[in-house]
Structure to design on (483 residues):
């Protein structure tokens, strides 16, 4: 019989901790004399109480040193379902007085670091609520790093098992391993956030804006305190944000190794070279088009190309300009680069660079076999042979991603949305990018006008995409519950 206690214990503790974090924006509202603070107090008390009750009721299961495979799948998905439910409470009780569907959408978008929003008039919202949106993304960013380094390699999701040896492997002891990695990652994550905040401050950002945007930059989440997103800070700040978005999209395990005195893995990481190389090529193309075709001087063209390309490919979702006005070619480029993503083990989302590298290696091998049938060729990644299980996992991931995006696009179209909105919305949700394309959900719009059915579909898409599809789909099979 399936034992839910270890899963319930961890989820209960995490929900309780989420309740405590609600006291931070509450304190900000009190300090500013804002009467919005009771919403956070009530939400914090309710969330902490429920989390504590669930944790205590499942405490006997929390004393075990590890989790079974089924419990790991359940925990991975359960956390990302439970936290948005409680994270939505301040939006429902507070100044926005959001309906449940909108509050849940916003909380799910935050914790999955998607960055899609249903709120407008952000400048008029209480700062406590804006800080809460940033906190949700910041927590989701560090959470997904731990999931990518600890859980997904163990679950063999989408080829992530290729990184098992780099995640301080302690087979069969998933929870202790998560605790060990979380401690080291947290120090680096907090340090990067602090460095980003100080950089923003020194370059002229107001203290509150610097805190909010530092949290959502390092989380590659993209929630801003302005309707204009990063367009409110056009200029040198775009260069600073681009650098930190790139740093957040690199594998955090390399930072851990660097801090421990091992710089070689950082310099030789094929993901990093591929990711940075892709950004360089795309920025050159976009800047050239903006300079030649549109009335941009070379510095503005380079700056806007660098910022917006980096934002979309990393899944951050900031926008410093309405790139829908940059012509159909660049709009198409922006759609496809959103499906690339950053490095595995980072806060970035989407398909990830390493899967494309493995796919291209497999295609190369297949072409070699066609040309030389008697030859023996093996797909390689980072100089190592790619095992059959990894190759199959990556191919299955690609198939599931494309099929899921197609099904979600059709489902959204059936709610009355036009094709561009449906397709780009499905891609933005699954790849956790944030803005889509078109006048409704493009960089100059938001998701507030979508119907409730579409919002629920997109919220589910965010969850599935953030957990890399197969971690969720595995639980929908009868064999999972029989195991």
């Amino acid at each position: 019989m399936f034992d839910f206690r270890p899963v319930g214990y961890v989820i209960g503790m995490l929900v309780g901790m989420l309740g405590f974090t609600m006291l931070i924006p509450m304190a900000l509202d009190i300090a500013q004399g804002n009467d919005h603070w009771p919403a956070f107090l009530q939400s914090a008390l309710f969330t902490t109480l429920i989390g504590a009750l669930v944790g205590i009721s499942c405490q006997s299961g929390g004393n075990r040193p590890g989790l079974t495979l089924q419990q790991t799948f359940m925990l991975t998905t359960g956390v990302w379902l439970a936290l948005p439910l409680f994270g939505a409470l301040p939006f429902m009780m507070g100044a926005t007085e959001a309906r449940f569907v909108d509050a849940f959408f916003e909380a799910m978008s935050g914790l999955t670091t998607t960055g899609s929003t249903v709120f407008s008039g952000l400048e008029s919202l209480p700062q406590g609520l804006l800080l809460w949106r940033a906190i949700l993304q910041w927590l989701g960013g560090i959470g997904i790093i731990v999931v990518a380094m600890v859980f997904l390699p163990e679950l063999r999701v989408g080829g992530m098992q290729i990184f098992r040896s780099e995640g301080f492997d302690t087979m069969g002891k998933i929870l202790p391993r998560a605790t060990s990695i979380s401690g080291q990652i947290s120090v680096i994550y907090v340090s990067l956030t602090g460095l980003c905040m100080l950089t923003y401050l020194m370059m002229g950002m107001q203290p509150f804006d610097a805190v909010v945007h530092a949290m959502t930059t390092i989380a590659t989440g993209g929630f801003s305190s302005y309707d204009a997103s990063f367009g409110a800070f056009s200029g040198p700040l775009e260069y600073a944000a681009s650098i930190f978005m790139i740093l957040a999209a690199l594998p955090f395990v390399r930072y851990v190794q660097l801090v421990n005195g091992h710089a070689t893995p950082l310099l030789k990481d094929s993901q990093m070279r591929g990711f940075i190389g892709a950004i360089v090529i795309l920025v050159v193309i976009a800047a050239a088009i903006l300079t030649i075709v549109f009335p941009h001087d070379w510095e503005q063209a380079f700056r806007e190309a660098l910022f917006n390309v980096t934002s979309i490919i990393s899944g951050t979702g900031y926008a410093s300009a309405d790139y829908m006005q940059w012509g159909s070619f660049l709009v198409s480029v922006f759609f496809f680069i959103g499906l690339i993503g950053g490095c595995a083990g980072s806060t970035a989302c989407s398909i990830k660079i390493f899967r494309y590298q493995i796919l291209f290696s497999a295609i190369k091998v297949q072409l070699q076999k066609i040309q030389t049938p008697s030859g023996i060729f093996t797909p390689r990644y980072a100089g190592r042979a790619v095992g059959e299980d990894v190759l199959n996992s990556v191919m299955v991931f690609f198939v599931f991603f494309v099929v899921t995006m197609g099904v979600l696009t059709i489902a959204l179209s059936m709610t009355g949305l036009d094709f561009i909105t449906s397709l780009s919305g499905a891609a933005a949700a699954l790849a956790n990018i944030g803005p889509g394309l078109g006048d409704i959900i493009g960089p100059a719009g938001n998701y507030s006008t979508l119907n409730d059915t579409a919002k629920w579909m997109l919220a589910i898409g965010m969850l599935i995409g953030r957990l890399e599809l197969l971690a969720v789909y595995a639980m929908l099979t009868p064999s999972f519950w029989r195991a």
Summary: The CA atoms of residues 271 and 277 lie 10 Å apart. The chain is about 65% helix and 0% strand.
